[in-house]
Amino acid sequence: MSTSGCRGIRPAGREPPLPAEVDTAERLADIARATVAVAQERGTHAVTLRAVAERLGRSTAFITHFVPSRAELMANALELARARWDDERRDELGGLVGVERLAALTRWMCTSSPEESVFRSLWIEVIADVRAGHDRAYDLLRTVTDATYESFLDGARAADRAEAARIADILYLYCRGYEVKSVEDPEGWPDERVQHSLELLLRVLVFDRADAAASA
């Protein structure tokens, strides 16, 4: 008996047709969240188009309609990370200015969470093998990190204008080093250990200088 006239029957292996109006941003966000979930559960090496498709209950063809390669999959996940970082940084810094804003930014960058660790793992993988087609993801990361450095520099000028660039360099490199260690050895570098050393660094490098300048 032919099933060609039977309603509700879809040949196996075929995707349901996309709605006429597809919210591409929403689809990309879904794919990004699924990418992060796969990385969190199985490690960044397990992030593939097929694995993300399985996570969403979709076909690989559905995923490649929006992100055509694994490199684009990584870039899309990091776009999600950038949006979250922007929101979190804005909430954390609020209306702070000067050295207080600089200190708050540094403390915020040197904290961790399970999802943050996943984003950092993706970030490290992109940097480690930019030749594997990760150019867009790498350029995205450079945009984020360059903007972060400028924020350090602005705050450092309130502590010591003459040495602002060196202060920004040190704090920036401290935070970037922490991000690598938080992925490489999270148990050896818990937030508590990092924050203790960070407070010492901020006192010597930022607050003492600002106090000395204010009393001069």
Automatic annotation (TrEMBL):
Q: Which domain of life is it from?
A: Bacteria
Q: What is this protein called?
A: TetR family transcriptional regulator
Q: Sorted alphabetically, which InterPro entries does this protein's record hold? A: Homeodomain-like_sf, HTH_TetR
**Domain HTH tetR-type per the UniProt entry, residue ranges:** 32-75
What keywords would UniProt list here? DNA-binding
Molecular function GO labels:
DNA binding
